[in-house]
Amino acid sequence: MTAVGFVPTQLITIDALGVALMLFVVASIIYFVRLVKGPTVPDMVLAIDVLSYDLVVFIILFSLMCDSPLLAVGALPLMLWAFLLDMYVSKYLMRRELGD
Amino acid sequence: MVWLSILEAIAYYLGLIMIFVGGILDIIAAIGMHRFKNFYMRLHAATIGTIGGAFYPLIGAGLVALTMHWMGVMKYYVAGISFTSAFFLLITAPVGSHALAQGAHKSRTVLPEPVIVDRLLEDEEGGGIEK
Lengths: 100, 131
Hints:
The structure holds 2 protein chains of 2 kinds.
Chain A: H1 10-36, H2 41-66, H3 75-95
Helix pairs in contact in A: 1-2, 2-3
Chain B: H1 2-35, H2 39-66, H3 74-106, H4 119-125
Helix pairs in contact in B: 1-2, 2-3
């Protein structure tokens, strides 16, 4: 625990994670264009899925950057919500009802 | 103790590399969502966006979080959330995209436009395959 020779310090790690976070922000913006101009409903739902998965990664990296672990609580329900949205949209498209 | 330090260094750099590769794959998938011209083709790009753009960075974030000594005990908390999210994403994301494709095809919301033959549509409309 004491002799940490190879791992860099906190500031260097925060800088590296911030550079990686920018990649996800750029990808989210490009996905959002597809969400706005998607021709059909399944295109929009697919874009929302990938956007929410990106948001999960964004939340966890941001909680690592800000040094506050309580931010990472919302990651798992957000990801399961995207799966639930898939299931309900496909069921509604097939049978025109939401079911139980 | 030296071996523990070396293992920490391996986990740190491997996690950082996985995060960066995931970000680049995510941008590639986002460009692919615009360059494919059909919903069923965009499913391929969405697969790259989920597995390459969300599963790899979650594993990498967990590995990086395990080496952060300045977070105290809470580093295990963030790492656990990352690994659990990655595991459930690996299970639920392909199931969700398959269900979406089935719903889109069965309700005829999206028809595959540049198509040669669509046997599933012929089966559903009652036209048989002549032998």
